């Protein structure tokens, strides 16, 4: 897949270099960086109407065929192929399609439907499938962002940009043996992933960075072993929402989420508080912080759910800028999740969009079993029985595989729910029922749910431990060639509204948690006693 995409980029670099950026965005099913807020996600009902109007078919027949095929893109393709046209439509270009998608993303009101119809009408052949899935925000080519970057790096190395036409160099690796060529490309790809060119991509105000993340640890002993004799600091790990605050010289304040979305309007109380806490000597800065809900009467932090569901002005938001055992216990008493442990001197740099071993998470949950909670997508539901009749009694959860852009089943969950939770989940999820599983769901037949669901919601889940499973597909082949990994005794904790489905725990992370768990178990009595206090 990477090689195929690389060859596409090489062709674009030679024949139409101005279209390279839009080709990259189209491959990622994006219209631009997240902070611009340009998303499609056009509803299926609107798309069905557009397909019906553009192809001259009746809406009820479009709906029936979509129910049967489970993919509106395939319906659009078959409808278009059976339609006779007086004139052959003009050929599509990558730039033209990209501009049309951006136009649709900016639409509102009655003009949207007409333009959608025109857009679908203009697309011929297999591009109907691609456009229809792009409009719905569900286009997947089996390559995640890092893979697309690898393909781009490979393309630039093999066919250097900026050449005249005909180009002097079409294939820089020509003449190399297959093994040498592969090693050379891997080396270049690794350099690309590790390199930040600050002169070409400096820090800009109002352009958010992807946050630095921490690695989970099992206990205090592991922290001491990791940092050895290096100086480090411990900070509270707050149970809130990541907030990257940009303070401009003009006094303007903007707040961005962990997904780089503009959340400024969500936190007017933080915006108004910044001038009061900023020293006069600070002209401008960027703060990586955590926003938490604060109970004014009890003088304590409230749970994350309160922050995400609050009504404006009901709850004040307090902003916190970023011996160990005692401090961990104190953090729990102060309604925090645990500690963030950060190195102070050695390798004490902020690494953008990276889960670094120079930051470690030490959570209260770590001392009770698995070293971290996991964030999983709901992709199916099982009908309730007994007192749960009329709602869903259990749910099928999946992790996300970045390389293949697929959701891999990891467990069935039925505990940790209050009655009101089940009712809330049922009311929300019934609006996202699918007639059949998505092509990018990896589920064993024996674990198939009663109802398939679109992967639109992320749940935080705690479990006793992880085990190899012949049924579940998470991290298949990473630990065992024929088995995946499953969560044992999973328990629902909360909905993660701040995370997109693609931000769910990955298969690689599931495999790492399993391996780390095995290492701890294999240590037996050699494990530090302080890890189990």
From TrEMBL:
PROSITE patterns per record: DNA_LIGASE_A1, DNA_LIGASE_A2, DNA_LIGASE_A3
InterPro entries according to UniProt: ATP-dep_DNA_ligase, DNA_ligase_ATP-dep, DNA_ligase_ATP-dep_C, DNA_ligase_ATP-dep_cent, DNA_ligase_ATP-dep_CS, DNA_ligase_ATP-dep_N, DNA_ligase_N_sf, NA-bd_OB-fold
Picking any one GO biological process from the record gives: Okazaki fragment processing involved in mitotic DNA replication
- Cellular localisation: Nucleus
Q: Where's the ATP-dependent DNA ligase family profile domain?
A: 324-401
Q: Where is this region: Disordered?
A: 500-533
Could you tell me which Pfam families the record lists for this protein? DNA_ligase_A_C (PF04679), DNA_ligase_A_M (PF01068), DNA_ligase_A_N (PF04675)
**Single GO cellular component term:** mitochondrion
Tell me the protein family, please. Answer: Belongs to the ATP-dependent DNA ligase family.
Q: Which PANTHER family match?
A: DNA LIGASE 1, DNA LIGASE 1/3 FAMILY MEMBER
Q: What is this protein called?
A: DNA ligase
Species of provenance: Mola mola (Ocean sunfish)
Lineage from the top down? Eukaryota, Metazoa, Chordata, Craniata, Vertebrata
């Amino acid at each position: 897949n990477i090689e195929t995409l690389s060859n596409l980029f090489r062709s674009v670099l030679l024949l139409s270099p101005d279209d390279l950026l839009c080709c990259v965005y189209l491959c990622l099913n994006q219209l631009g960086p997240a902070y611009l807020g340009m998303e499609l996600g056009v509803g299926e009902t609107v798309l069905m109407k557009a397909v019906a109007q553009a192809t001259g078919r009746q809406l009820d027949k479009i709906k029936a065929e979509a129910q049967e095929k489970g993919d509106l893109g395939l319906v659009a393709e078959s409808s278009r192929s059976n339609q006779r046209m007086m004139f052959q439509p003009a050929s599509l270009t990558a730039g033209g399609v990209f501009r049309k998608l951006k136009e649709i993303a900016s639409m509102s009101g009655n003009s949207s439907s007409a333009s959608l119809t025109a857009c679908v009408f203009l697309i011929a052949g297999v591009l109907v499938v691609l456009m229809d899935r792009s409009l719905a925000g569900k286009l997947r080519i089996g390559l995640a962002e890092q893979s697309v970057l690898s393909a781009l790096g490979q393309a630039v190395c093999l066919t250097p940009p900026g050449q005249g036409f005909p180009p002097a160099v079409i294939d820089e690796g020509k003449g190399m043996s297959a093994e040498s060529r592969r090693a050379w490309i891997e080396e270049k790809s690794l350099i690309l992933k590790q390199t930040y060119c600050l002169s070409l991509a400096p820090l800009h105000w109002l352009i958010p960075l992807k946050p630095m993340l921490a690695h989970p640890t099992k206990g205090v002993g592991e922290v001491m072993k990791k940092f050895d004799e290096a100086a480090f600091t411990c900070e509270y790990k707050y149970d809130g929402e990541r907030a990257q605050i940009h303070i401009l010289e003009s006094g303007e304040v903007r707040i961005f989420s962990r997904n780089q979305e503009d959340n400024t309007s969500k936190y007017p109380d933080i915006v108004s508080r910044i001038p009061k806490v900023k020293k006069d000597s600070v002209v401008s800065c960027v703060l990586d912080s955590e926003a938490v809900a604060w109970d004014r009467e009890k003088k304590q932090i409230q749970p994350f759910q309160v922050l995400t569901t609050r009504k404006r002005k009901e709850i004040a938001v307090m902003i916190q800028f970023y011996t160990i055992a005692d401090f961990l216990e104190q953090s729990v008493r102060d309604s925090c999740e645990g500690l963030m442990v950060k190195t102070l001197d050695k390798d004490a740099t902020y690494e953008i969009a990276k889960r670094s071993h120079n930051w470690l998470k030490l959570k209260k949950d770590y001392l009770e079993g698995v070293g971290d909670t996991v964030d999983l997508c709901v992709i199916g539901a099982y009908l309730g029985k007994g007192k749960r009749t009329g709602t869903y009694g259990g749910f099928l959860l999946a992790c996300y595989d970045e390389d293949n852009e697929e959701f891999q089943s990891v467990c069935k969950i039925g505990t940790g729910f209050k009655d009101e939770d089940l009712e809330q989940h049922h009311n929300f999820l019934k609006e996202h029922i699918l007639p059949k599983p998505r092509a990018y769901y990896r589920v064993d037949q024996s674990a198939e749910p009663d109802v398939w669901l679109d992967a639109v919601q992320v749940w935080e889940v705690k479990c006793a431990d992880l085990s190899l499973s012949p049924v579940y597909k998470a991290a298949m082949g990473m630990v065992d060639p024929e088995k995946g990994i499953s969560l044992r005794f999973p328990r629902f904790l909360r909905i993660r509204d701040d995370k997109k489905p693609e931000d769910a725990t990955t298969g690689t992370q599931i495999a790492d948690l399993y391996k780390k768990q095995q290492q701890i178990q294999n240590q037996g009595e050699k494990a530090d006693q302080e890890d189990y206090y």
